[in-house]
Amino acid sequence: MRILVTGGAGYIGSHTLLQLLRKPHEVLVLDNFSNSTPEALKRVKQLANADFEICEGDIQDGTRLDTAFRAFRPEAVIHFAGLKAVGDSHETPLEYYAQNVSGSIELLKAMQRHDCRRIVFSSSATVYGEARYLPFDEHHPLQPTNPYGRTKYFIEEIMRDWVASRQDASAVLLRYFNPVGADASGRIGEDPNGIPNNLVPYIAQVAVGRLQHLNVFGDDYDTRDGTGERDYIHVDDLARAHLAAIEFAAAVTGCEAINVGTGRGATVLEMVKAFERASGRAVPCKIGPRRDGDVARMLAAVDKAARLLGWNATHDIDSMCRTTWNWQSANPQGYLQA
What we know:
Layout: E1 2-6, H1 11-22, E2 26-31, H2 38-48, E3 53-56, H3 62-72, E4 76-79, H4 86-91, H5 93-113, E5 118-124, H6 147-164, E6 170-176, E7 178-180, H7 199-208, E8 214-217, E9 229-230, E10 232-234, H8 235-251, E11 254-260, E12 266-267, H9 268-279, E13 285-288, H10 303-309, H11 317-330
Parallel strand pairs: 1-2, 1-4, 2-3, 4-5, 5-6, 6-11, 7-10, 8-13
Antiparallel strand pairs: 9-12
Helix pairs in contact: 1-2, 1-8, 3-5, 5-6, 7-9, 7-11, 9-11
């Protein structure tokens, strides 16, 4: 299948790209490299021993999208491109709405102009907001508590309406929980610009000596140790979910939202301990106040993914931390040292 991957140089995009090439599928990556680097794509080519096309561009640029669609003629799209930091979204909400929502509209317009009818969307469990019950299933009310989560919610609704307007279209909305880990090779992994916004890459940079300590936002939540609890999923499992989702989208019509998690939770301090086991290094922590927009617990119901996609997560948190440390210790400055 010919698949256009937006944001394919990013953390999740690059791991999914590697598995797409191993399938093998024909791939075109569209990326503006605002939070990624071409070095990741170079390494994916080496790992897969396969070539693919790259188009540098932004999803808000309809002309650039038309150029890519005309040249490549994709049969399906996997859409990763977008801004993703909860904290930043409170500070720059208009930037988030422009890039995430307006950019996704431009992408769908281009798909419609070029008769591409299949899309898998990188959504987020943040669309659920505060839990009315746990685990979150796909019928849980959607009440995101921050601008980032609201952009994902609005994109989901736009995609539902787009699919409803076309009898031959399909969309799979993959609601990620907390992706972590890295490819077993240690050649690709999560390498955020600046100070990491997510827990595990922050822990990894503390362990490798780039940061002095971990800031823990709140220890008074209703959890086992008072710190926030999340459902973490290995990025390789998440990448496999995208392959299953694109095959599902090619075989059906309509729109489906599907959780992608493990169904098991770990607190911040439990992840710290797991990382200390994996790295053999101490991770100093400083407890601070809660962060705006955070919720106490997030836990996925994953039976729908098993039923519709034939997919289940296979990695535990020790594997997640071990592969993260393998990546970070081999690449202490991320891709910058290349």
